[in-house]
Amino acid sequence: MTRPTSSTDSTPAGDGAAAALIARRRAAIPRGVAQGLPIVLSEAHGAVLRDAEGRRLLDFAGGIGVMNVGHSHPKVVAAIQAQAARLTHCCFQVAAYEPYVALAERLNRIVPGPWPKKTLLLNSGAEAVENAVKIARAATGRPAVLVFEHAFHGRTLFSLTLTGKVSPYKIGFGPFAPEVYRLPYPYCFRCGGQRPDGGCCQASEEHFSSRLATLVAPETLAAVVIEPVLGEGGFIPAPRDFLHALVRWCQRHGVLLIADEVQTGFGRTGKMFAMEHCDATADLTAMAKSLGGGLPISAVTGRQDVMDAPVPGGLGGTFAGNPVACAAALAVLDVFEEERLVERAAAIGDKLRERFLLWQAAYPWIGDVRGLGAMQALELVEDRSSKRPDSRRTALVQRVAFERGLLLLTAGTWGNVLRTLMPLVISDAELAEGLDILSSALEAAQ
User: Fold this and answer.
1) Alpha-carbon torsion 58, 152, 265, 211, what sign?
2) Which of 140, 159, 200, 261 could form a disulfide with 242 if both were Cys (CB 3.0 to 4.6 A apart)?
3) What are the backbone dihedrals phi and psi of residue 96, each rounded to the nearest 5 degrees, phi first?
4) 3-state SS of the chain?
5) Are 137 and 306 in contact, with CB atoms under 8 Å apart?
6) Edge-to-edge strands of the sheet including 406-407?
7) pLDDT: is 5 or 86 the higher one?
8) Is the pLDDT of residue 203 over 90?
9) How far apart are CA 348 and CA 351, in angstroms?
10) Does domain 74-339 have CATH number 3.40.640.10?
11) CA–CA gap between residue 22 and residue 420 (Å, rounded)
12) Is the domain 17-68+341-444 a CATH 3.90.1150.10 member?
């Protein structure tokens, strides 16, 4: 059996397939492609993983939020097989095919927004965010972009510029792109600036104008890019009043709002898209991850007039909107409807939050419980008065959980957040089993 370790350079015990493949991995793949736990998978179905030596693990990681409909869902697999037998690739800019158009039509219907919409298909979340900014610049004729602290928007040069976490994402990769400006994210647990009425202290148009006075002129801003719930930054929901104030400010200054729903999209928060929680709409929405059920595909959906701003040939990509990935995505959307996965995410979230609050009451080093729907998190601290991040204990909980059969991810700028990204098809019994394992790992980390 694979022996878990927190070091990516440690070889697992035994002479099995996992040890051999990890040794080959170390020899063939650069160290920059990190692996938090030494696991080698052989197969996965639903919310259950099997490693190369036959060990069963429950999946609370979901391929970093990719597997909302579960691993190898039969409907998605069948759609992939059928499409692969007909057409695997030709490049949509060379010759059109129906799955691309059908998926664009479907996303135009379900993405929030009262106006006519159009959709561009791409390969990854980073590409979606970067193309959303390109479209915003073309539509406004402005160069600057505003983002927020603790954000993660991708690993390409421009999306990495937008990303707020330095280590490990930005170390050694500068200089970065110009005309990107950053404001604090409403991180309420670490802010302490709540208004007397209980609202967010940053939720006003005056706040944005005041903070930007020393950063950038609003008339030069093409777009504001925001995650309605921070993903890699620690599963921090933006308060409703903050998002409403931001929408009003953008409209007042002719700035386009881009919602990065790469991790929050497709049911994770108990709504199809996280922006629906606050009844606010973005001009452009970037999506990826769970859209393709495991295949690489992303999208930008937005106002028709904005999406049509770039000149013909200004958007696209060789593999963007690949027909097999489109077929998988269409099947994913069918599964959401047929299995009522948005409602399932909300129910999972209720169970998670109930257990998380009990743990917070029991352990003084659980500083915060937060999230929307099945996108829930625990922030671990040394103590609640100082709120000093405790990444050591967080890593220990992750490792012990892995040893006991649960795959779990950390997050946060300081690596002190435990987050849940289980497939939404997880059964009640599997969910309870996973939470029991996590409970035992928290107990062991005292």
Assistant:
1) positive
2) 200
3) -75, 155
4) CCCCCCCCCCCCCCCCHHHHHHHHHHHHCCCCCCCCCCCCEEEEEECEEEECCCCEEEECCHHHHCCCCCECCHHHHHHHHHHHHHCCCCCCCCCCCHHHHHHHHHHHHHCCCCCCEEEEEECCHHHHHHHHHHHHHHHHCCCEEEEECCCCCCCCHHHHHHCCCCCCCCCCCCCCCCCEEEECCCCHHHHCCCCCCCCCCCCCHHHHHHHHCCCCCHHHEEEEEECCECCCCCCCECCHHHHHHHHHHHHHHCCEEEEECCCCCCCCCCCCCHHHHHCCCCCEEEECHHHHCCCCCEEEEEEHHHHCCCCCCCCCCCCCCCHHHHHHHHHHHHHHHHHCHHHHHHHHHHHHHHHHHHHHHHCCCEEEEEEECCEEEEEEECCCCCCCECHHHHHHHHHHHHHCCEECEEECCCCCEEECCCCCCCCHHHHHHHHHHHHHHHHHCC
5) no
6) 41-45, 48-51, 56-59, 406-407
7) 86
8) no
9) 5
10) yes
11) 26
12) yes
Q: Which residues pair with 237 in a beta bridge?
A: 229
Given a cut of 60, is residue 3 above it in pLDDT? no
- The answer to whether residues 75 and 294 touch, using CB atoms and an 8 Å cutoff, is no
Residue-averaged pLDDT of the chain: 94
Statement: residue 333 has pLDDT above 60: yes
pTM listed for this prediction: 0.94
Using the predicted structure, report yes or no on whether residue 200 has a pLDDT greater than 90: no
Q: How far apart are CA 400 and CA 4, in angstroms?
A: 8
| pLDDT surpassing 60 at residue 49 | yes
pLDDT (tens digit per residue) in 173-184: 999 999 999 999
Is the pLDDT score of 93 beyond 90?
yes
What span, in angstroms and rounded, lies between the C-alpha atoms of 268 and 377? 13
Mean pLDDT of 244-269: 98
